[in-house]
């Protein structure tokens, strides 16, 4: 594996982060209909996610190859450039999230994303809630996973 460094995202990373999200979403979730255009996604990362949320990026070969967003005790985003999957970067992000939120974590993933389920289960996350998708913009059934203290159903997480 090439050397990968995790660091906090800066404003100049917003375009790369959005592009990774777009490529990764298309590769991992081809059956899920996106709720927003490419331009809307890029604006959201530029104006909301990167400047206002705890966003981390993975740098390798002089470019951003993945990112993770922590929001309170939730991993709200974890995406890798499709060409960089299977190289341990996701493992590094989950380790970082656990160190930063030792009291517990939760996250949502779509029901159809079985590789993500296996990934999070391998890291000790447990499925604690299943929905019909009526609560997300894509209207796609999803699953909430939790690790550590985040396992309890506290509502709103």
Unreliable spans are 153-157
Output mean pLDDT.
Answer: 92
Tell me the span between the first and last alpha carbons.
Answer: 34 Å
Tell me the helix content.
25-40%
Strand segment tally:
7
Using the alpha-carbon principal axes, give the shape: globular
In short:
By secondary structure, the chain is of the alpha+beta class. It has helices at 14-28, 38-52, 89-100, 114-122, and strands spanning 5-8, 54-60, 63-71, 74-80, 105-110, 126-131, 142-147.
Write up what this structure looks like.
By secondary structure, the chain is α+β, with helices and mostly antiparallel strands. It is built from 4 helices and 7 strands. It has helices at residues 14-28, 38-52, 89-100, 114-122, and strands at residues 5-8, 54-60, 63-71, 74-80, 105-110, 126-131, 142-147. Helix 1 packs across helix 2 (38-52). The longest helix has 15 residues, at 14-28. Mean pLDDT is 92; it is low at 153-157.
């Amino acid at each position: 594996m090439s050397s990968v460094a995790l660091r906090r995202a800066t404003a100049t990373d917003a375009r790369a982060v959005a592009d990774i999200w777009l490529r990764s979403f298309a590769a991992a979730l081809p059956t899920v209909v996106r709720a927003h255009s490419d331009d809307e996604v890029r604006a959201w990362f530029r104006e909301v996610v990167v400047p206002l949320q705890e966003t981390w990026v993975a740098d390798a070969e002089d470019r951003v190859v993945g990112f993770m967003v922590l929001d309170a005790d939730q991993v709200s985003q974890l995406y890798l450039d499709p060409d960089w999957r299977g190289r341990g970067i996701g493992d590094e992000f989950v380790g970082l999230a656990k160190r930063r939120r030792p009291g517990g974590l939760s996250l949502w993933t779509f029901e159809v994303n079985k590789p993500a389920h296996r990934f999070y289960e391998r890291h000790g996350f447990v499925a604690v809630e299943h929905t019909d998708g009526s609560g997300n913009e894509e209207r796609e059934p999803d699953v909430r996973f939790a690790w550590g203290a985040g396992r309890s159903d506290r509502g709103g997480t």
